[in-house]
Amino acid sequence: MRPMITGLVVLATAVTAVAGLTACASTTDSAENSAPPASPTAQPATSQPGQEGPFTQIRLRIGASEATARLYDNATARDFASLIPVTITLHDLGGREKAGPLPRELADGAGQSSYRTGQLGYWPPTNDLAIYYRDDGFTIPDPGIVMIGEIDTGLDAITDADGNGTLTITAA
Predict the structure, then answer these.
(1) Is the model's pLDDT at 49 over the cut of 50?
(2) Which region ranges are annotated with the description Disordered (predicted)?
(3) Residue 105, SS3 per DSSP
(4) Which residues contact 146 (CB under 8 A, 6 or more apart)?
(5) Residue ranges per domain, the chain?
(6) How far apart are CA 105 and CA 32, in angstroms?
(7) Could you tell me which of 75, 68, 62, 65 has the C-alpha nearest to residue 110?
(8) pTM of the predicted protein model
(9) Which of 36, 40, 79, 92 has its CA 20 to 30 A from that of 120?
(10) Closest Cα to residue 91, out of 168, 161, 169, 170?
(11) Can you give the pLDDT at residue 45?
(12) Residue 7 — left, alpha, or beta (φ > 0 → left; ψ -120 to 50 → alpha)?
């Protein structure tokens, strides 16, 4: 009779241990499954893909009109920020953007063939800053435009500026 009692005690101990482990695993799984999944690619809705904060705020002034913008956190945008304050002469390009030469070349960045209204871009071949005010489906040729920021308020100040205007950019 003694071996049967010992066997039952061992069996009861094993069942209790397995039940305890299962309960712990269920609690851990439930806690992990109830938490919202972390998204390493979550970004502000208005940011350029791959660009996350912090943003540098800037002010763009043409005559008496003013716009505010923020720069993306990328090497080209940081290099552009090192130029501020800067004044450039703008010209209208294709009825979609105002562009003007920067005083020097900026750090390399990944160019792209598309843009959104309100974005600021850097055109490496001529060291131009471009401010897009109308999307007409134009595809930017190689090497592409390096997006460095976007207008938050006052895009109409850029849009309404005469063909050739002086743009002063300062920290906000």
Answers:
(1) no
(2) 28-53
(3) coil
(4) 74, 76, 106, 108, 109, 110, 111, 112, 121, 122, 123, 124
(5) 1-36, 56-171
(6) 49
(7) 75
(8) 0.69
(9) 40
(10) 161
(11) 32
(12) alpha
User: 56-171 in CATH: which number?
Assistant: 2.40.100.20
Please enumerate in sequence order all residues whose Cβ is within 8 A of that of 49, keeping only pairs 6 or more positions apart, or say none.
43
Q: Over the stretch 71-119, which tens digit does the pLDDT of each residue have? A: 999 999 999 999 999 999 999 999 999 999 999 999 999 999 999 999 9
Secondary structure element (H or E) that encloses residue 59, with its range: strand 56-62
The DSSP 8-state label assigned to residue 166 in this structure reads E
Calpha distance 95→36 (Å, rounded): 45
Residues in the chain: 172
Instruction: List Cβ neighbours of 48 (8 Å cut-off, separation of 6 or more).
Output: 72, 119, 147, 150
Structure tokens at 143: 């090497």
DSSP lists the bridge partners of residue 56 as 71
Q: What is the spatial distance between Cα 71 and Cα 19, in angstroms, rounded to a whole number?
A: 56
